[in-house]
Each structure stands twice: as structure tokens, then as C-alpha cells.
Specification:
It is found in: Mitochondrion matrix. Keywords: Aminoacyl-tRNA synthetase, ATP-binding, Ligase, Mitochondrion, Nucleotide-binding, Protein biosynthesis, Transit peptide. Its EC number is 6.1.1.20. InterPro entries: aa-tRNA-synth_II, aa-tRNA-synth_II/BPL/LPL, Fdx_antiC-bd, Fdx_antiC-bd_sf, Phe-tRNA-synth_IIc_mito, Phenylalanyl-tRNA_Synthase. The chain has helices at about 35-40, 65-70, 80-90, 110, 145-155, 190-205, 230-255, 295-300, 315-325, 340, 375-385, 425-440, and strands spanning about 40-45, 45-50, 55, 100, 105-110, 130-135, 135-140, 155-165, 175-185, 210-215, 260-270, 270-280, 285-295, 310-315, 360-370, 390-400, 405-415, 445. The protein has 12 helices and 18 strands. The two termini are about 30 Å apart. The model is unreliable at about 1-35 (pLDDT under 50). The relative contact order is 0.13. It folds into 2 domains: about 50-340, Bira Bifunctional Protein, Domain 2 (BirA Bifunctional Protein, domain 2, 2-Layer Sandwich), CATH 3.30.930.10; about 360-445, Ferrodoxin-fold anticodon-binding domain (Alpha-Beta Plaits, 2-Layer Sandwich), CATH 3.30.70. The radius of gyration is 23 Å and the shape is globular. It is an alpha+beta fold. The chain binds phenylalanine. Phenylalanine binds near residues 142, 144 and 292.
């Protein structure tokens, strides 16, 4: 699955957590790209230095230099970059929304999880899924990390930012990507009439464009319930406004597409209820585009907005850019090859013209694994040793020794550069380094 991991499928765990002991950590709110370049992120023996700030390491620390370097790239702020263009296009369908796009990726676990009602044992918190600077400081895994703060400041807002998750390695997964968050609040007392009026006006201004078919079979059920504190009509009006706004957004974004099919399905997030996902049919497959729902009232109460009701959504920009531009590999967004960025013009969505692919080099590695081995940890070592040259990592064999009960795995790594031809010698060196590093860092035994 892509990018929206906090759903029922992977996690399920929904619940209120109220850990107030994690306060006291201030956030570098505004992250100046220039400042970041002047002070490049650095890992020393006992601390992590990023955005000019120093964070002490502890036993949770798992960020790597490769990942920290990504935090300085700020693709969503580079003019003509597809990520920036899609961001602007989406923002233009939400006029009057305050748009925050300069937040530092360094947040507290309180902001990323606790404030959003993640349970203490939610799998998203795990060190195998999330990059920690230390126990309490991490790289945000989603733009929702800024919900509480921004909801205090505005009733209509967008947040665009780079987010980080430890993940598999293939054409559609990358440990750094970009999300856009949106939220809108209404007066709980007048929401029904307000929404009716707004939708009527919006429909008059933007008659639904032809060629896009929307299916919605979602239901409010005990599995995807209305919050007890909400009036039913108010919740339904909020949900209507949410779906209407997002249908309009994709209609506009895909105005060129002849037969776009969109569907709504039920979902679960710790910070919204009810919750939904929007999917689009692309090349015969349903792609998850965004997650959304009615904001949990505890969050609005904490934002000092107890009399409001509202919706929020979060979407992955890479996925939309890949579909709209026809970009086949997620690593291309990070390519520094002029043949990539040079193709694009600001504000214009255009089909990507592939430039020649360089030849791949395939290597296998097999080892006995200790208990608690996690594939993401292996992928992390690969990323660290090989960088973007690692195109895919695939487990091609796994077996348990019948006598000793020990488990052995074999991974196939496909090395290929986006920018040049790699030589066998160079890859052999990387593979050798990888063999040493996995033994050192993961306590595996090579076969
Ligand atoms: N933050 C969620 C994710 O990354 C998406 C989301 C945002 C869902 C806002 C609901 C509301 O998976």
C-alpha cells in the first residue's frame, strides 16, 4: 500500500491516548531552506544536528545521514518541480485557505501521535516504521502532525510538507515523500445551513465537469461511527461538504482525463470519525489517493475550538504527480539529473518524457536472521550504503532450518542509477560494504 498507512488495514488500533509528559520540547517552526543549506544536517557520536539545532541521541535514534540529507531538498518549494505544481493546483481549488508550507520536518512524538489520539501501542510509533532523532523527537510521518497547531490559528487551512516513513524499496515507495493536509471548520450550530449555502454557490460557480464518475457506497456504521458528541445532521453536513470539496478538487486536477473514475470507501484513522478514503481508477487498478474524515472533537477542544465541527484530509503528492505526469519511478522526483527538472515548466502539468534508462546490476545476499528481524531495517541499511542506486529490494527466498529452527532469508537487490551507468566493480564494492554493514548493524550471519 502507498503512503497512507494509518488505516484500519495495517493498524486498526484506534483510541484515545493522553500522554501529557511529552511536552516541553519546542519545535523549530519555520524551516528556512537557506539556513538548512548553510548548516547541513549532521550526525555525530552523541547528537543529531539539523536546522541549526542539536538533539541528543538515545536508544530510539534511527535516522541516517541519507534521510537527513533529504530534509534539505524541499521539493515542494522548487518552481516547476512536479510536486510543487501539483501542490499549487490543489491549493487553487481551496481559495481562502491559509497555506503553510515551511514547517520543519522535526516534530515531537506528541505532535505526530499523542495530539492526534494515537493509542500508545499504535504500530505507526514503532522504530521499524518511523525515523526517530531520539525518544521524543522524530521526523514527521504525516502532515497531520501540524493539525493541532494550525487549527488553533485558522478555520480553513492547508499544510504541505515532506514526510518520512521507513518502508520497502520499489518504484512506488520511498522513505521521503510529500503530503498535503487540508481542514475546514464550521460553527457546529449553523453548519447545516452554512454547508447548504456553500455547496449551492460552489456548484453554481463550478458545474461538475463531464467525464468523471464518482461512486460512494459508504455508510455510517458502528465500525465507522459518528462521534457521540456530534449532532447527526451536523456531522452529515460536514461529511457532505468534505466529499463535495474533494470531488471538486480531483475533477479539477484531472480535467484532462477522459474517463476518470473515483470511489469512496470506509477507512479508519485515530484522529477522524467517521473516516473515508478516496480512490481513483488508474490503468485498471484502484489507487488510494487520500484519507479524510470528521475531525475528532478532542482535537478541536484542545485547539480551543469546542464550538466548531470540521473535516480534514491528507493526500500523497507523489502518487498524484506520478499519475498526472506519467512518472514511472518515485526516485525520479529526487533526481538531480538536469534531464528531469529541465522538462517542466511552472504551473504546467505535462507528460514526462523518459530519458534513457541505464543498465541494472543485480546482486543477491543471503543470511541467517536473529529473532525480531524486520525487512525495513534491512532496507534501511541498503539505503544507507547504496543511496538511490538501490532500485528494488525483494525477498526471493525464506526458509526455516528443520533441525535448528533458524531462519534464513535471501534478498535480491537491483542496483541502477537514474543519472549514469554503474560499473560492476562499483556495485561489487557497494555489495561488499553492505555485507559488512548488515553483519555489524543487524547481527545476522551471512551464508
Ligand atoms: N494523516 C493520514 C495519513 O497519512 C491521512 C489523513 C489526514 C486522514 C487527515 C484523515 C485526515 O495516513
Amino acid at each position: 500500500m502507498w503512503h497512507l498507512i494509518y488505516t484500519s488495514k495495517k493498524s486498526g488500533a484506534v483510541g484515545l491516548s493522553s500522554r501529557s509528559d511529552l511536552t516541553g520540547f519546542s519545535l523549530v517552526r519555520v524551516y528556512q531552506p537557506t539556513e538548512a543549506l548553510e548548516v547541513p544536517p549532521k550526525i555525530t557520536t552523541d547528537s543529531i544536528i539539523i536546522g541549526g539545532k542539536t538533539y541528543p541521541k538515545d536508544d530510539a535514534t534511527n535516522v541516517t545521514t541519507t534521510i537527513l540529507e533529504k530534509t534539505a531538498r524541499q521539493l515542494h518549494l522548487i518552481p516547476a518541480h512536479p510536486i510543487a505544481t501539483i501542490k499549487d493546483r490543489i491549493a487553487s481549488t481551496f481559495p481562502g485557505f491559509k497555506h503553510y508550507d515551511q514547517f520543519s520536518p522535526v516534530v515531537t512524538t506528541k505532535e505526530n501521535f499523542d495530539d492526534l489520539c494515537f493509542s500508545d501501542d499504535h504500530p505507526g510509533r514503532s522504530v521499524t516504521d518511523t525515523y526517530y532523532l531520539n525518544n521524543k523527537i522524530m521526523l514527521r510521518t504525516h502532515t497531520s502532525a501540524h493539525q493541532l497547531q494550525t487549527l488553533k490559528e485558522s478555520d480553513k487551512l492547508l499544510v504541505t510538507a515532506d514526510v518520512y516513513r521507513r518502508d520497502e524499496i520499489d518504484a512506488s515507495h520511498y522513505p521521503a515523500f510529500h503530503q498535503m493536509e487540508g481542514a475546514q471548520l464550521f460553527d457546529a450550530k449553523t453548519v447545516v445551513a452554512d454547508v447548504q449555502k456553500e455547496i449551492k454557490e460552489a456548484l453554481a460557480a463550478n458545474p461538475a465537469s463531464a467525464g468523471i464518475q464518482t461512486t460512494d457506497t459508504t455508510l455510517i456504521t458502528p465500525e465507522n461511527p459518528k462521534q457521540d458528541c456530534h449532532d447527526e445532521a451536523a456531522m452529515l453536513a460536514t461529511a457532505d461538504h468534505l466529499k463535495h470539496s474533494l470531488n471538486l478538487m480531483v475533477r479539477r486536477l484531472f480535467s484532462q482525463e477522459k474517463n476518470l473514475q473515483v470511489r469512496w470507501i470506509d477507512a479508519q484513522f485515530p484522529f477522524t470519525s467517521p473516516s473515508w478514503e478516496m480512490e481513483i481508477l488508474y490503468q485498471g487498478k484502484w489507487l488510494e489517493v487520500l484519507g479524510c474524515g470528521v475531525i475528532r472533537q478532542d482535537i478541536l477542544n484542545n485547539a480551543d475550538k469546542p464550538d466548531k465541527i470540521g473535516w480534514a484530509f491528507g493526500l500523497g503528492l507523489e502518487r498524484l504527480a506520478m499519475v498526472l505526469y506519467g512518472i514511472p519511478d518515485i526516485r525520479l522526483f529526487w533526481s538531480q539529473d538536469a534531464r528531469f527538472l529541465r522538462q517542466f515548466e511552472p504551473s504546467k502539468i505535462q507528460k514526462f518524457k523518459p530519458f534513457s534508462k541505464y543498465s541494472p546490476c543485480i546482486k543477491d545476499i543471503s543470511f541467517w536472521v536473529p529473532e525480531g528481524f524486520h525487512e525495513n531495517n534491512f532496507c534501511e541499511v541498503v539505503r544507507d550504503v547504496a543511496g538511490d542506486i538501490a532500485e528494488t529490494v525483494e525477498m526471493i527466498d525464506k526458509f526455516t532450518h528443520p533441525k535448528t529452527n533458524r531462519q534464513s532469508v535471501c534478498f535480491r537487490i537491483n542496483y541502477r542509477s537514474m543519472d549514469r551507468n554503474v560499473t560492476n566493480n562499483e556495485i561489487n564494492e557497494i555489495q561488499e560494504k553492505l555485507r559488512t554493514e548488515v553483519v555489524d548493524r543487524m547481527k545476522v550471519e551471512l551464508r
